Amino acid sequence: MIWDAAAGAVVRKFDTTTMKDDADLQKHLADAKADHAKRATTEFGVTIDAAATVPWADVVAEINRCKRLGITKVEFAFGNGK
Question: Is 11 part of a structural domain of the chain?
């Protein structure tokens, strides 16, 4: 997650793909979780990598999105603080 100051909005990516909107991100998360369930025995998890400029409310919204999808393993990437 990065803050686009020019647009005044958060840019969300799933892997390397920029998400069009919240619904697009939710679909990618749900599809990845379902695909993981078919192939793996480990718990599906999400790592949130948010720049320091991303409003905390947007980070919390992503945590809540994961919870709604039944994703309980949510971690944060340790960035460089910029």
Answer: yes
